[in-house]
Amino acid sequence: MASDDAYQIVLTDIFEGPMDLLVHLIKKNEVDIYDIPIALITEQFLEYLEWMKSMNIDFAGDFIVMASTLTQVKSRMLLPIHDGDPQEEEDPRQEITRPLVEYLQIKSAAEDLAARQFLGEDIFVRNPGKVGELFGTEDDMIKIGLFELIDAFQKILEKISPDHLVDLTADSLSVKERISELVDIFEKQKSLTFNELFAADSNKGEVIVTFLAILEMVKLSLVQIAQQVQTGIIRLFYSG
Question: Can you list the domains of the chain with their CATH numbers?
Answer without folding.
Answer: 1-116 (no CATH), 127-240 (1.10.10.580)
